[in-house]
UniProtKB/TrEMBL annotation:
Species: Prauserella isguenensis
Residue stretches making up the DUF222 domain: 15-304
Region feature (Disordered): 328-358
Name this polypeptide is given: DUF222 domain-containing protein
Pfam families reported for this sequence: DUF222
Length: 420
């Protein structure tokens, strides 16, 4: 039975490759037709019954085909070899869309170098997009602030009718605001769940959101840090000495000027973290007690930022603090320390104890290694919080910004002070 399932998994892998190759052929044909006809709207209307998708979707595919053919030939080649499909390519194209053609081709070339020996999980769309964001920042650092300001000015709320008397309400917000909103709703939902509410967490989050928007009492106050998100800002960037890379927890790199605007907001709370400049990692804090202290949990979240599974991007603040070596109050037992802790979302925390899975994480070196029940092994490496610097040995101060809201009126408050 196990061999049969393994063969089926390999057949699925082959289907993914063939689908990506067909996606590449379709995009190339659409780009050729667009170039020959020169009337995208007319072509899209004509191809709507041919492709049996909406006219808007045909237009998007034409845009994607033209962009990937002209601006990112290596990415198109990766589709033709089956490495990445339409969904992953579309997410990459959204990141490079504001760039001019030369800059986009530069990103394409750098991406080819970065992925030459990368693990298979690097092709997962979320991981691929994070890598491309960093390359866009590297290729066009001067344009990143303008791109961010333009995107933040286009914030909006959309209502999309769905099926079975349901609809979706989607808010496009600045990343730190959206993160704070979700954290607050999630904290209130979990509080209700802990009080014995029988609704699922998804139902509770949806119901709490509706209650808050409609001005109703959701029946619970948010926990103290319920609307907290983290922003990693090197001291040099905080002091405007440099525009060194900053990172928003659960999102990725953001421009230093945007980070400083968030940082200097009157609603911000600061905490200082010492980082080793040689590795870019927060300094370890050893502990031996069973229950992780607030300091340990906080430092692990700052260091790892996301669930340690190679394809999971759930922010660490919404994950369980897990002992990588099981804790035991006996010689040889795993200690409760930063060097033995890692964030795992609830789903992957449970998966760790499944005997059919092997999911191991080295917190010190930031290496996650996962083996599935049918023998596939995936490896991921943690990105340091700061870019390691040679020739410096003194710890560097990294500001970790908390952005939170009050329970009473939804306004922000300030209960800390800048790190020094």
């Amino acid at each position: 039975m196990g061999d049969d399932v393994g063969e089926t998994v390999e057949r699925l892998r082959g289907l993914r490759v063939r689908r990506a190759q067909l996606d590449a052929e379709e995009l190339a044909l659409l780009a050729d037709i667009s170039a020959a006809v020169g009337n995208d709207r007319g072509v899209a209307e004509e191809l709507t019954p041919v492709l049996r998708v909406s006219t808007r979707e045909v237009e998007r595919r034409i845009d994607d085909g033209r962009s990937v053919m002209r601006r990112m030939p290596w990415l198109l080649g990766s589709m033709r070899t089956g490495e990445v499909g339409t969904y992953g390519v579309r997410r990459v194209l959204a990141v490079v869309d504001p760039l001019d053609d030369d800059a986009a081709r530069n990103v394409d070339a750098l991406l080819a170098e970065r992925l030459a020996d990368a693990p298979e999980t690097a092709w997962q769309p979320g991981n691929l997009t994070q890598r491309v964001r960093r390359l866009v920042e590297k290729v066009d650092p001067d344009g990143q602030v303008e791109r961010a300001r333009r995107a933040r000015a286009e914030r909006k709320l959309e209502l999309t009718p769905g099926e079975h008397v349901m609809s979706s309400l989607e808010a496009h917000l600045p990343a730190e605001v959206a993160g704070a909103c979700y954290s607050r709703v999630d904290g209130m939902a979990r509080s209700l769940r802990h009080r014995g509410d029988q609704r699922t967490l998804d139902q509770l989050r949806a119901d709490v959101t509706a209650d808050l928007l409609l001005g109703h009492d959701p029946g619970v106050a948010p926990p103290e840090a319920a609307a907290m998100v983290y922003l990693h800002v090197p001291a040099d960037a905080a002091l405007t000495i440099s525009d060194e890379r900053c990172e928003l927890d659960g999102y990725g790199p953001i421009p230093a000027p945007i980070a400083r605007e968030i940082m200097t907001n009157e609603h911000s709370t600061w905490r200082a973290v010492l980082c080793d400049p040689g590795t870019g990692e927060p300094v370890d804090l050893g502990r031996t007690r069973r229950r992780p202290s607030a300091v340990i949990r906080e430092l692990v979240r700052v260091r790892d930022r996301e669930c340690i599974m190679p394809w999971c991007h759930r922010p660490a603040r919404h994950c369980d603090h897990d002992h990588e070596r099981p804790w035991a109050n006996t010689p040889g037992g795993g200690s409760t320390s930063v060097a033995n802790g890692g964030p795992r979302c609830r789903r992957h925390h449970r998966l760790k104890d499944d005997p059919d899975w092997s999911a191991r994480y080295d917190p010190v070196h930031g290496i996650a290694r996962v083996t599935t029940p049918h023998g596939a092994t995936y490896t991921a490496h943690r990105h340091p919080v700061l870019t390691p610097k040679s020739g410096r040995r003194e710890p560097t101060v990294l500001g970790v910004l908390g952005h939170r809201t009050t329970a009473a009126d939804g306004h922000h408050r300030r209960d800390g002070h800048p790190a020094r």
